[in-house]
Amino acid sequence: MEDSRRLHFSSFGTPIGAVSSASAATGRQRECIARPSKVAKAQTKTRPRCKKNFPGQPCVHGEKVPEGRMRGSAMRGSNEPKVARARQLRKVENDAEEKLWSELRARRLNGHKFIRQLPIGPYFADFACREANLVVEVDGSQHANRSRDRYRDETMNRNGWSVLRVWHADVLKSRKSVLDTIVAALDGRLDRKMIAVDVKFLPSSASETR
């Protein structure tokens, strides 16, 4: 009975049971050292830094954002009043175009046929009458003294189109006066260049050479 309770010794003089338990403990220590903790994994998962363009700043899908600029909602939040104002202006201009179109469509204006968004060169005319080679544009406040509109008008004039520009506010408040001006251009009574506060008429290059 005593012999059976004796510990078996290894060749080095250490009990075999003690060797196995020590080996297991050493293995667990090695396993803990080999396997990093969840905190260490989380710390290693950081965004790559833009060392080339912006040192110390994280890269977001390859975009380059200089210092002092904000991304996402912070940037949009600072521009919300401007965005709201732009939407309001677009709505007013769209309403003016729809009101004028209701007067021009289906030959309602003295039998003249108008179409919308006619392509002329790289541009699209708001309204156009092919019979009279007349383009009618509805302008908003953002069109005041714009060089882009000048190039647009010159392109249409070179292509044989006369351009009549009216204000969206006049279309909404003084529609009859606007329609009378359009009829004058259609009938040929308005045939010279005219630039006023509330209307602009630019005859085609062919009309000016007559």
Describe the structure.
By secondary structure, the chain is α+β, with helices and mostly antiparallel strands. The protein contains 9 helices and 6 strands, in the order H-H-H-H-H-E-E-E-H-E-H-H-E-E-H. The protein has helices at about 1-5, 15-35, 40-45, 70-80, 80-105, 145-160, 170-175, 175-185, 205-210; strands spanning about 115-120, 125-130, 135-140, 160-165, 195, 200. It has a 6-stranded mixed beta sheet with strand order 1-2-3-4-6-5, with helices on both faces. A hairpin with a 2-residue loop joins strand 1 (about 115-120) and strand 2. The longest helix is centred in the middle third of the chain and has 25 residues, at about 80-105. The protein is globular.
Number of beta strands: 6
Pairing-aware structural class of the strands and helices?
A: alpha+beta
- Poorly predicted runs: 1-12, 18-22, 50-54, 58-66, 68-75
The total of helices stands at: 9
* N- and C-termini, Cα separation: 134 Å
Shape: globular
Largest sheet: 6 strands, mixed
Radius of gyration: 40 Å
Taking all residues together, what is the mean pLDDT?
74
Q: Could you give the order of strands across the largest sheet?
A: 1-2-3-4-6-5
| Helix and strand run | HHHHHEEEHEHHEEH
Strand residue content: 5-15%
Q: How helix-rich are the residues, as a percent range?
A: 40-55%
Provide key terms for this protein.
210 residues; six-stranded mixed β-sheet; disordered N terminus
A few lines on this structure:
With about 210 residues, the protein is α+β, with helices and mostly antiparallel strands. The protein has helices spanning about 1-5, 15-35, 40-45, 70-80, 80-105, 145-160, 170-175, 175-185, 205-210, and strands spanning about 115-120, 125-130, 135-140, 160-165, 195, 200. The longest helix has 25 residues, at about 80-105.
